[in-house]
Structures are given as structure tokens and as C-alpha cells.
From TrEMBL, chain A:
Keywords, comma-separated and alphabetical: Cell membrane, Membrane, Transmembrane, Transmembrane helix, Transport
Membrane topology field: Multi-pass membrane protein
Bias (Low complexity): 357-369
Main location: membrane
PANTHER family found in the cross-reference section: DIPEPTIDE TRANSPORT SYSTEM PERMEASE PROTEIN DPPB-RELATED
Protein name per UniProt: ABC transporter permease
Lineage: Bacteria, Bacillati, Actinomycetota, Actinomycetes, Micrococcales
Entry similarity comment: Belongs to the binding-protein-dependent transport system permease family.
Amino acid sequence: MIRYILSRIAIAILLLLGLITLSFGLVSLLPGNPAVALLGDYATPADIARINAQLGLDKPFLERYLDYMGRTLNGDLGHSFFTGSSVSGEIWTRLPNTLVYLIPGLILALLIGMGMGTLAAYRYGRGADKAFTAGVSILMAMPEFVLGLLLLFIFYQQLHLAPAPLGMLSSSDIPPPKVTGSVALDAVIAGQWSAVQSIMGRAALPIVTMGLFFAAPFGKTVRTGLLQILNSPQIEFARACGLKPFQVFRYALSDVRGTLMTYMVLLFAAALSGAAIVESVFSWPGVGGWSLDGVLKGDVPVIQGFVLIMGATSLLGYVLLDTLITLLDPRTRGNILRKARKPSKLRPAAPGPVPAPTAGSAPTAGPKN
Amino acid sequence: MRDLVTEFHSRSGVTRALHGVSFEVGANEIVGVVGESGSGKSTVVRSVIKLLMPPGRVTAGTAEFHGQDLLKLPERQIRRIRGREIGFVAQNPFSALNPVVRIEKQFSNIAKAHGVGVDAGSRDRALELLASSGVDNPERVMRGYAHELSGGMAQRVVIAMALYLNPRLVIADEPTTALDLTVQRQVLDTLTRLTKGSGRSMLIVTHDLGVVANYCDRVLVMYRGRLVEQGPVSQVFVQPKDPYTVSLLNSVVQPEAAEALLATELSKSRSI
């Protein structure tokens, strides 16, 4: 089993190297010259050459690649062309801000999706199911910024329940002393409950936006998966044995659990890339809005850093998922244990239930993209 | 006398799967249901225990089981009857057993569902049933998962689960179709032995007339949602009344008939 986990980690490392290469290559292929973007359209060729030399862009491709690979593996993601701030430092302070609303948002999405999807599957073809299907269609047709703006319109402009979408802390809040780098965590540590409250109040609408936006595809998956298993011979037999509805539901859930877990990780990856839009709407000081800004300006190290972090996070998620699913299912688990016991017996490696994603698809994989 | 009278119409949309089917299963009796695919065999038995797939619905008739009309019972009560009073043997054991739950746990879940205490005694009963169903090493099977079993063994486990709470009626929906020919006989032997031995009744759906001839007391012949003929096996098979039964019986390759045909053909060719 340890052997299996090690093999997964080895694959993950290979994919990570691929990801670094990709983030380097993709950005090099981007149109536009950063020096021109920095200096404006009226820059003289001499100025451009000077900036290129400063940024190391005049070196040959291979040298830049090796240099980039080496620096990245050492944890140095470079400095922003425009602000000069360290990319890894920026990510380190901004990523926690993103997670403050992203994780509760995803949990909300899972709860809503699970509840609604289950209800719809059990009430298949009836009113509740039809209402669910219609709701999902509407939500899935709506881009997340529309949803965010709609929520703002209702809860901020009309009902005055939510604070203005002007970031995480209001100007009257005193930022907590820096301990972990995450403003929310620092506020908790410092015991500044008014700041915590302020953050939570401001995070509410982004959380609801994320929750509703991702509840739709997740709920749809739950419904489809459950419908399939509920009409299967397995559940028929379970019911024929007189199992209680709750037991039957647990049997059904054990069947769709792999699919749902896969989808959760997929949603997480999609949510990370979707964060850019939500953060723009709510002026949230997270990693998404910052990277969007970087993309618009052509700030290469920022784009590379963002792609890397999103990709690596998704990669980690997939490796964990793959291992977990394989170990949870006795059928695949048995294979691994047997393989570990008799290593001499040659047997083609059983592919995991989830194909390992290619590095390129990881950061952008999602139902909407 | 234990009676089961069923008479109903089921409607899937506008399709009527069964057009008023009436029959009964007596105590200690094995009744076979035969007919071609789509004739409503499986629908009949599923209607009895209310396990029809969503659009299917029994719209008329009664299914009386020990003085209770099963069709009028609320889901809550019919659930208590399923598994405890009426056991169900599924067609394909691998799609019926839960792949990720240990066999032992699946047994104890059944016990729990019916409020039967889960203790050493209930475990022993499961082991005993597995052993008498012909499972080798029941102890190991109990601790394992469905995918570790062969088809025949898995079906024996399904039979043991169906009989776990000592039901008075067993419904078997093509219990051997998914199995190898060589295993089919053993499984059927087991199933009928365990049924007859303890005064249970069985309703067995099959399209294998041989199964009916060898194991059943009475037979129901179904065609296009109608019961075209029913009666003791000896009577229906020897003197079929309905033309469909005749054609069904003729469709079976009978060794004696084939030999006779061959003999006449041979004598013909010799005379030429």
C-alpha cells in the first residue's frame, strides 16, 4: 500500500514538473511584450532593450527555462514586473483571503447540492424534481458575476442587509497584527472580534454566490448519480430485503461516493479559477482579482505564479482523491494489497477510478469552462 | 392454508403491462412463472412486493398474503414484510449485493432493518444458512466482499440473505440466468431444498422450461401481460390447453423428439 501511495506521489511530482514547464511555455507564447506594456506605446527601442535585459528576457529560451525551473523549485516565483512585489509573498497573503470565502462557499454548495439533488432524485418526475431541474438550469445558465451582482442588488441595494462590496475589512476596521499572514486568522488570534465579524459579514455574499453557483452542477450530479443507482438491481435487492429507507440511502450513497468526491475536487479546482470573477465583483483582496489584474496587464510572473499555485493545488487534490477512492473501495484496495504482498507477480497496473488529470487541464477544469 | 391471490393491472404511462392476472401460491408449493421476454413475468412478482420501477404502478386488484392486502399496505408496513415474510432472490448476485459492504455487515443490516437484535446468535444463523446453501468456508465469506466470490457462491449468499429471517414466501426472479450452466442446477437444488424443507412457498420466474419441469409443482404461463394458462406442471406440460403454451413447449429442443425425428429421417433416406 505504501508502495502505491509512493507511486502516486512520484506521478504527482512528474506532473508538477510538467506544470512548471507548461506555465513557463504558455506565458512565453502569450502575445505582447512586457517591456512595451510597462513603458507604454511610445517607448524607444533602447528603453525596451534595457527593460528586457533588466527582466532577463533577452537571454536564450533554454537558459530562461532552466533558470525559471530552478527558481520555482526553490520556491521563488519571481517579482511582479509592475509593482516589484514578490509573487510568492503576494500569494501567501492573498490565498488565505480567498479561502476565507471559498471553502465555506464550497461547503454551502455541497450541502445545498446534496440536499436538493437527493430530494429531486427521490421525487423523480414530481413537482420538487421539476422545480429543482428548472432552478439548476437557471443557475447554470447564469455567469457567476451576474449571480453576484444580483445578490448585491437584492441584499445590499434593496434590503440593506449586506455591507457594500468594498473588500474584506472596512476602512474603519483596524487590521490585526500580523502573525500568520492571513487577516482573518490574525483577527481571531488577536481576539479582534469586531474585525472577525466585519470579515464574516462581508464574506457572506461571496459565500452565497459561490454556494449557489456550484450547488447547481453538484446537485445535478447528485441527482443523476442517485437516480441511476436507485433504479439499479442493487438497490432493488436492498429494498427487497426490507432495509429501512435510511439504510437504502446509505447503500446508494456508497455507490455514488466516488463520483461525488471526484466532482468535489473538480469543483474546488473550478472555484479557484472562478475566484477571479467573484473577487472583482466584491473587490475582495484575494488571489483571484490580483491574478486577473496580472493577466490584463501582461504581468508574466504573476500569471505564472497563479497558474502554478492553482495547478499545484488541483494536483494535490487529485492525488489525494485518487488515493482515497482507491483505498475506500474494497475492490481496488484488494488489488493493491495483493500487489504489495506478491510483488513478483507481474500484473498490469490497474488504472485508478479517476484518470490523473493532465497538468494543463487541472487549473482550468470545471463545469463552466 | 396460506394463500396469495393476485389480480391487478399495472400501467406504465399508457402501456398496460399486466391485464388482470390472478393466481395463488399455496403453502409448501413451488410455482413457476414462464413466458417470453416482456410477457410480464418479472412485473408480476415485483407488483406483489411493490418493487415496481417508478412509472410502474398497480392500478387495480389485490395481492392477499395471510389475510392482508399487500397492495393496500402503506410503504412502511410493506417494508417490514419484505425480507421478513417474503424473501427475494435477485437475478444477478453481483449487481444485487453491495460491492463495498462486507457480507457480514449486509446480513446484520437486514437484521437491524427488521428490529432483530444483532448478536452472536444472528451471526451463527447467517453462517448456518450459508453452510446449508453450500457455501464453503462461510466464516471467510462473511468477512469478505461480494467481488471475491464466484457467481454460484455469490448467488448462494443472496439466497441465504433472502432466507435469513425465515420468510414464508420466497420470490425468485430468474435466479440462475446469470450463472454458468453447471452451477445453475446446484443453485436450484439448494434453493428448492431450503424452501421445501421448511414449509415455505416459492414463486420462481424463469424462461427455462426445464427448471419448471424439474422443480415446480404448478406453473403459470404468461403471454403479453396475460396469464394464458395455469395448473399443475404435469397437466400443463402433458396436455397444454392454450395454443401459446403449445408453441412454447414446442420451442424447446427435446432430446427424445429430436431422436425420433432423426430416426424417421434416417429411415426415409434408407428407403430411397
